[in-house]
Amino acid sequence: MTPRQRRWLFAIAAAGLVACYLWAFSGLPGFGNYPGPYGQAILNHAIAQTNATGVVSAINFEYRGFDTVGEEFILFTAAAGMSVVLRRLRGERQGGTPSAEDAANRQVPATSSAVRVVSLLLVGPTAVIGWWLATHAQANPSGGFQGGVILATAFFLVYLSGEFIVFRRLSPVALLDAAEAVGAGGFAAVGVTALAMSLPYLYNYLPLGTIPGAVSSSGTIALISFLVGIEVAAAFVLIIGELLEQTLLRREESS
Amino acid sequence: MTPNVVMDVLQVTALVLVAAGATLVVRTRDRVRLVLVLSAYGMLLAILFFAFQAPDVALSELTVGAIALPLILLLAIAKVRKPAKMRKQ
């Protein structure tokens, strides 16, 4: 195909795309107009039904809870797959104990003291914000997922402010595996418990509390958000830790 | 200025910034710089979602787009890079 033909093909395809795009846009509802019936129905009943003022969390962890279980296990599977693919293979050795020649020639820019100090200062506040987000899903726009990722960054700040060894000592793989399993399994178990009580899967069987939006309100929504927070934090620390370890590993020269 | 006008200005500004940011992401060639630009773009997207009254989505975008994805990409780049000893001082 000559460049000229290719340009023509592109022009025709692009024109078709533009036409379809404009056609599709002309059929969209007006800006900010939501024609579906569910939004209003949820808004009318969610707070009365769940005592959660964080209605998005109520949808994620109760109305669409089954959907969220699936999403939960996507991350779980991703972390598990990562651990399997990046496990230490024969022919690889720890970068922490390089040969003398390697060590002499290695040029790693030293972490500046500014980075170390700022990272160290941020560890505490980051951990607090992460926990706060994971435990206040029922009250505010937040949730276990966001809280978990932010909680995991607290561990990466430890790595930035110190050494990989410290990071690993604070987050041993066995503990991460256990936390991830407890988080993901706990979510599913909350649903199965409802089944055992001959209620629908993930039915909110815990007391809802009396004050809407209080930390103690909303029953299983708060509990599930907390479990999701643990699972996500563990999964992310596991994934990043695994990658960090990989960058420290050097494939042995196959001579 | 009524709150509505403020909101409109905020939303249009956010949209323009996101369009500019996306263009910048596509135009960046250097990989490490690309990751940093991508992280900033995630931040812009979070602001966009916030301006359109979706704070939950904004938080998710902030954590995934501005933190998790750039971090994983940076580590992957560090991994596939040639070892330091292959570069001459």
Task: Give an overview in words.
The complex is a heterodimer of chains A (255) and B (89). With 255 residues, chain A is mainly alpha-helical. Chain A has a domain at 48-87 and 115-248. In chain A, 68% of the residues lie in helices and 2% in strands. Chain A contains ten helices and two strands. In chain A, strands 1-2 form a two-stranded antiparallel ribbon. The longest helix of chain A has 29 residues, at 220-248. Chain A is globular, with a radius of gyration of 25 Å. With 89 residues, chain B is mostly helical. Chain B has one domain. Chain B is built from three helices and no strands. In chain B, helix 1 (3-27) packs antiparallel against helix 2 and helix 2 runs antiparallel to helix 3. The N and C termini of chain B lie far apart (60 Å). The chains are: A mainly alpha (255), B mainly alpha (89). Chains A and B meet through helix 7 and helix 10 of A and helix 3 of B.
Brief sketch in words of this structure:
The complex is a heterodimer of chains A (255) and B (89). Chain A contains 10 helices and 2 strands; from the N terminus they run ααααβααααααβ.
Query: How many distinct domains of chain B?
Result: 1
What Rg of chain B is obtained from the alpha carbons, in whole angstroms?
Answer: 17 Å
- The helix content of chain A, as a percent range, equals 55-70%
How do the helices and strands follow one another from N- to C-terminus of chain A? Answer: HHHHEHHHHHHE
Q: What is the chain-wise order of helices and strands of chain B?
A: HHH
Major sheet: arrangement of strands of chain A: 1-2
How many DSSP-defined strands of chain A?
A: 2
| Content of β-strand of chain A | under 5%
Structural class of chain B: mainly alpha
| Main interface by residue count | A-B, 25 and 20 residues
Shape of chain A: globular
The count of helical stretches of chain B stands at 3
Largest sheet of chain B: none
Oligomer: heterodimer
Calculate the terminal CA-CA distance of chain B, rounded to whole Å: 60 Å
Care to count the β-strands of chain B? 0
Instruction: Label the structural class of chain A.
Output: mainly alpha
Average the pLDDT over all residues of chain B and give the rounded result.
86
State the end-to-end CA separation of chain A: 45 Å
Helix content of chain B: over 70%
